[in-house]
Amino acid sequence: MSIEYLGLSEINGPLVVLEGVKGAAYDEIVEFKIDGTQKKLGRIIEDYEDKAVIQVFEGTDGMSLKNTHTKLTGHPMELALSEEILGRTFDGIGRPIDGLGPIVSDVRVNVNGMPLNPCRREYPRNYINTGISAIDGLTTLIRGQKLPIFSGNGLPHDELAAQLVTQSSLGSGTDERFCVVFAAMGVKYDVAEFFRRTFEESGVSDHVTMFLNLANDPVVERLITPKVALTAAEYLAFERDMHVLVIMTDITSYCEAMREVSSSKGEIPSRKGYPGYMYSDLASLYERAGIVAGQKGSVTQIPILTMPNDDITHPIPDLTGYITEGQIVLDRNLHGQGIYPPISVLPSLSRLMKDGIGEGYTREDHQAVANQLFSSYAKVSDARSLASVIGEDELSETDKMYLKFGSAFEERFVGQGHEENRPVQETLDIGWELLGILPKSELDRVDSKMLEKYYKPAT
Fold first, then answer.
1. Which of 135, 220, 299, 355 could be stapled to 14 by a disulfide with Cβ–Cβ 3.0 to 4.6 Å?
2. What confidence score (pLDDT) does residue 1 get?
3. Backbone phi, psi, residue 371, to 5°
4. Around Cβ 100, how many Cβ atoms within 10 Å?
């Protein structure tokens, strides 16, 4: 039997305090009724003695100490799940907003997830093809990996996220099932419409599940959105044997919401005002990626975050880098040159790349091409620095070749169209064409047999 409590003890921003509570539990869902008509949901975030602190998802507007009735549901937040969620659009806490009605299912899953035994994890293998050369060729995304994108305000991370959703696949020659779970947190309405329209026009909506938390939605709802999205992904991966790519944007909005709620609770702030538990909170999201032994599916994550003031040492990218297996960094200078996507190759890496490429996965020469392109492009910056001091005419012939290689690499390999979907084989072929600009003696990261097979000097 559920008990209904009359009135509240305190209201502070998105938080309310209820006294005289019996049998309350952490993370339990609470139902509010305001003035006997308006309904809202909340979640217990603190429980001590007979007091419960509750986050109100829809905000506390209209609520007062006397006009609110509170009922404890006795269970944590749950999400109704079936394969029918594919092709559907939901709000930040999993309610349908596409006009197609609720999901009817006997399966209801706790959105907080279940702890995964580390011994049951399998090492990520095989790649996910994104159709973007700078990712597929040099920072390959592996199934079960978590690979964040570090962006900045004004950079085209939204366009890149949309392109990843529309182009990502398991590559050719496989009959395994693939889908995308897309979660947007704190985005403007026009950005949300851009995502929705892009997915519909590209014809991928039938294998995409969207969770949208808009900028004018309650800030507390933002804290639930990634958990709801990851719960849906885990269901599709481990109950429906699908390979799921989860794209979450923008993690910075999530952390800002965490800081706001933490301040409302009166917690002692840590670096730059963020709560001291931000590391463990982010880890609880990122570590829900992976492959489970005995299961056919996998969960792969691409969290996108905007670095405040382009500062990669800011707490959000800093802590994210500790937890995840690499990063893809967007560069403002490349963006200013009109290069899309403006991926900065040198600070980007994928720590699991070596185990999901090569013969049997992509192509035998993949690792060698990636190593050589990275090494050669690193020398480009040295040649450019020297040219800025002594002038390009005074450079050696080799340095001039590196300048030519650098410009071609940025324009033809890094740069590509917004709707250009390149197979991995085409990416590697472009890599070899660019390496042909350099003399064979400079290619010291490639085996001689591979050079004989693939290298062709530029004419």
1. 220
2. 53
3. -60, -45
4. 11
